[in-house]
């Protein structure tokens, strides 16, 4: 058969005229638009030339797949592609160009062999690109379709880009709304964005907004194309922040979480995009907040140690209890625990959605593990040895991680522990981890003997213990005893010990707001709410949770640290560890010392010597110094001083220091340091006053120092300042008076504190807490805290109604709320 180039000019001219004449007569539908079927004019011309067309309809076109050159073709017969390429010329009528590009679209759908025939003609790409701006929708759609097929071939992508297709498509998507063209145009971007060069042109707010909006489209093709483009853009990490700013994370997460919202292709592209974005820590948190979990892919062989359900009794989440309505019947495999009664004891005869999803997820993951269809790694990952992760919904992901924790493989268990720690960033996730049964596995792994795993578990428990409910569960599984055992081990490194101190401090620390509630005497009110018929279900639930927390505080779970022999190691860390961890150790000892028996145990363990060494390390003749091992940051050092001062006060309430002179000298030096912040001096002066009271002076070698103007302050200045605290004076005068009193008491003299209390300042200071300015309120809390070091002032403080005011400050989280809490704790219960 002759090729087009050998056709006579008369036949070529006839073909051109025949297309124009017939297409205007029979190629249009009743609305004047072109039909989706093959135009009759093309059929007649091809028949006249001895060719034929055997193509599919346009609505059946998919992405190009390379095909062979068998006789069963779908494109134009050899030699006649050039006819339609010539018809694309700008000098031809729009209708002819449209029919030509539609024919070429059908031809290009055959695969690389047919696309090669089109690309043999120089300049054809420029003509096709020019049709993207056509006012005829069918022509623009066909042009986009041809470019989509051509750009799917790697060797032609650069040619498509050089022809200006990228710029034309960007303009088409941002300035024109043509639904029929948008999908094919976006698929061209999907193909081109595989290369690094075109990506830079796609990263601009306007086009990213268009792609982001297409993720929510009702058309599957548009969602797939937009997700594919965005997934390619995430291959360049420098564009991550721009992608996050346009809000693609919630929309990509919706595609994964909503089973009916996306196709398999769009879900896979969305997953790839989110996994790449999640490599940056701050973006990973945003993805987790959307309800997704990063789960390590550990390989199918790791699940061989999984025990099927028939070999171990099934369990329910910790928060769900079965109400047994009949005598318990023995069950071989534990099914009786699930089948007997099945009356949920959680309020309302029903379990919450989180517990239900956790139960379903656990059953689903155990079934998949039993049949061996999870954990398969890709061949590339197995060859490279790199860790691979996948994204799952939180109810499947968390239960999968807990399942991995139960496998007899410490290497994969470590990956699961680290993954659980990374998702414990909000209250919902923490409670979901606890409900899924992760706490027993984590506590068990503390004693596995692997230091790296113990460190990872400790860090995870520290994050989980932020939740009040989860902290109770951790304590109920004796995690503190396991931590103390590791702390006592001679093989434990200093890094692990420091992390253990942080976890013990978190687990041992009573909820501060809860302590304030106890001090305020509101327990009876909570009981009234629970028993009231008028209270709503939400109010009763909140009251019951608070009462449960109060009951857990009474059990004193922190006592296990003392009985387990952890005190010497805490004192050692306070002396030698870096400042942040040393501060944690001091805070933990302060919490332990609130119990009188623990305070005596701490004193017997040598805390007095440790305090002196720690303070000397921080201050030497009122100058911050450094040691060979530790470089002290001035701000961290001051916080450490405050923690040590609180420890001195707490111990002094229940025990007597043997030789307080050295401590007193160092504390006085700190007070004389002009650069020390005033709030730090508040803590130091209060501890010095308490030390002086309980020890009856510091001995003959270091008597209580008296200042030159001591008598003037006691007899004149302090009474005058207390009078100015009265409501008859202006707010400015009262603020100045209480600030001056605070400065005097920061000198650490017990006589000054006695003079202030004797002048009747307590009632006026309590009034300032209610009606004073922020500065006056902060100074008042500081003065009252210093006065509370003398127990003789406690009745006056309680009579002045100080407790409710302090509780309100703690609840409002004002800047001085922590000092207010410690003042509450100093008052009698």
UniProtKB/TrEMBL annotation:
<feature type="coiled-coil region">
    <location>
        <begin position="493"/>
        <end position="556"/>
    </location>
</feature>
<feature type="repeat" description="ARM">
    <location>
        <begin position="437"/>
        <end position="479"/>
    </location>
</feature>
<keyword id="KW-0175">Coiled coil</keyword>
<dbReference type="Pfam" id="PF00514">
    <property type="entry name" value="Arm"/>
</dbReference>
<feature type="repeat" description="ARM">
    <location>
        <begin position="565"/>
        <end position="607"/>
    </location>
</feature>
<feature type="repeat" description="ARM">
    <location>
        <begin position="123"/>
        <end position="165"/>
    </location>
</feature>
<dbReference type="InterPro" id="IPR011989">
    <property type="entry name" value="ARM-like"/>
</dbReference>
<protein>
    <submittedName>
        <fullName>Uncharacterized protein</fullName>
    </submittedName>
</protein>
<feature type="repeat" description="ARM">
    <location>
        <begin position="396"/>
        <end position="438"/>
    </location>
</feature>
<dbReference type="InterPro" id="IPR000225">
    <property type="entry name" value="Armadillo"/>
</dbReference>
<dbReference type="InterPro" id="IPR016024">
    <property type="entry name" value="ARM-type_fold"/>
</dbReference>
<feature type="repeat" description="ARM">
    <location>
        <begin position="164"/>
        <end position="196"/>
    </location>
</feature>
């Amino acid at each position: 058969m002759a090729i087009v180039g050998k056709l006579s000019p008369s036949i070529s001219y006839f073909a051109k005229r025949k297309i124009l004449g017939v297409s205007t007569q029979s190629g249009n539908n009743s609305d004047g638009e072109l039909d989706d079927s093959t135009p009759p004019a093309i059929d007649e011309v091809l028949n006249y030339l001895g060719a034929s067309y055997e193509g599919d309809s346009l609505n059946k076109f998919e992405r190009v797949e390379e095909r062979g050159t068998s006789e069963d073709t779908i494109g134009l017969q050899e030699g006649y592609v050039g006819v339609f390429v010539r018809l694309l010329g700008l000098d031809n009528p729009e209708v002819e160009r449209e029919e030509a590009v539609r024919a070429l679209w059908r031809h290009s759908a055959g695969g690389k062999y047919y696309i090669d025939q089109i690309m043999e003609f120089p300049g054809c790409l420029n003509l096709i690109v020019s049709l993207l701006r056509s006012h005829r929708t069918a022509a623009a759609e066909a042009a986009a379709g041809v470019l989509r097929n051509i750009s799917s071939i790697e060797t032609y992508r650069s040619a498509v880009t050089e022809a200006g297709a990228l710029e034309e498509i960007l303009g088409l998507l941002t300035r024109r709304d043509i639904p029929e063209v948008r999908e094919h145009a976006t698929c061209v971007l999907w193909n081109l964005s595989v290369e690094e060069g075109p990506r830079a042109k796609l990263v601009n707010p306007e086009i990213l907004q268009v792609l982001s909006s297409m993720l929510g489209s009702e058309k599957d093709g548009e969602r797939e194309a937009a997700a594919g483009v965005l997934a390619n853009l995430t291959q360049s990490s420098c564009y991550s922040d721009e992608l996050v700013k346009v809000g693609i994370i919630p929309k990509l997460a919706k595609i994964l979480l909503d089973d009916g919202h996306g196709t398999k292709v769009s879900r896979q592209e969305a997953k790839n995009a989110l996994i790449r974005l999640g490599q940056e820590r701050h973006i990973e948190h945003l993805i987790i907040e959307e309800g997704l979990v990063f789960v390590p892919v550990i390989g199918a062989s790791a699940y061989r140690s999984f025990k099927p359900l028939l070999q171990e009794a099934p369990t329910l989440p910790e928060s769900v209890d079965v109400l047994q309505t009949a005598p318990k019947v023995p069950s071989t495999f534990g099914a009786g625990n699930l089948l007997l009664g099945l009356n949920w004891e959680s309020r309302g005869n029903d379990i919450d959605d989180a517990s239900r999803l956790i139960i379903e997820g656990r059953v689903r993951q155990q079934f998949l593990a039993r049949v061996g269809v999870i954990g398969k790694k890709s061949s590339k990952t197995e060859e490279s040895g790199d860790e691979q992760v996948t994204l799952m919904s939180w109810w499947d992901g968390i239960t999968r991680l807990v399942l991995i924790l139960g496998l007899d493989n410490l290497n994969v268990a470590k990956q699961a522990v680290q993954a659980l720690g990374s998702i414990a960033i909000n209250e919902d996730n923490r409670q979901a981890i606890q409900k899924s049964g992760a706490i027993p596995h984590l506590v068990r792994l503390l004693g596995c003997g692997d230091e790296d795993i113990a460190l990872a578990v400790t860090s995870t428990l520290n994050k989980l213990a932020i939740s009040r409910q989860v902290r109770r569960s951790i304590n109920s599984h004796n995690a503190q005893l396991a931590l103390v055992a590791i702390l006592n081990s001679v093989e434990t490194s200093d890094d692990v010990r420091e992390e253990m101190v942080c976890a013990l401090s978190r687990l041992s620390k009573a909820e501060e707001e809860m302590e304030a509630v106890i001090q305020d005497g509101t327990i009876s009110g909570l009981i009234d709410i629970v028993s009231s018929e008028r209270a709503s279900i939400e109010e009763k639930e909140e009251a019951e949770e608070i009462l449960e927390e109060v009951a857990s505080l009474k059990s004193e779970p922190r006592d296990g640290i003392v009985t387990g022999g952890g005190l010497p190691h805490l004192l050692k860390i306070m002396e030698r560890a870096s400042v942040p961890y040393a501060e944690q150790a001091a805070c933990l000892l302060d919490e332990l010392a609130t119990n009188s028996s623990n305070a005596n145990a701490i004193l017997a363990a040598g805390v007095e010597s440790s305090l002196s060494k720690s303070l000397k390390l921080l201050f030497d003749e009122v100058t911050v110094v450094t040691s060979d091992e530790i470089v002290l940051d001035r701000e961290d050092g001051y916080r450490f001083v405050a923690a040590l001062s609180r420890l001195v006060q707490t111990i002094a309430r229940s025990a007597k220091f043997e030789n307080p002179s050295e401590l007193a000298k160092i504390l006085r030096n700190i007070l004389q340091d002009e650069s020390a912040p005033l709030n730090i001096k508040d803590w130091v002066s209060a501890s010095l006053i308490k030390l002086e009271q309980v020890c009856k002076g510091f001995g003959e070698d270091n008597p209580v120092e008296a200042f030159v103007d001591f008598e003037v302050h006691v007899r004149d200045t302090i009474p005058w300042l207390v009078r100015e605290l009265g409501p008859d004076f202006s707010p400015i005068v009262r603020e100045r008076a209480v600030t001056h009193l605070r400065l005097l008491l920061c000198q650490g003299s017990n006589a000054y504190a006695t003079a202030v209390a004797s002048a009747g300042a307590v009632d006026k200071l309590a009034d300032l807490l209610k009606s004073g300015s922020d500065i006056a309120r902060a100074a008042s809390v500081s003065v009252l805290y210093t006065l509370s070091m003398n127990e003789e002032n406690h009745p006056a403080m309680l009579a002045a109604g100080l407790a409710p005011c302090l509780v309100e400050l703690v609840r409002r989280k004002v800047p001085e709320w922590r000092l207010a809490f410690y003042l509450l704790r100093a008052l009698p219960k």
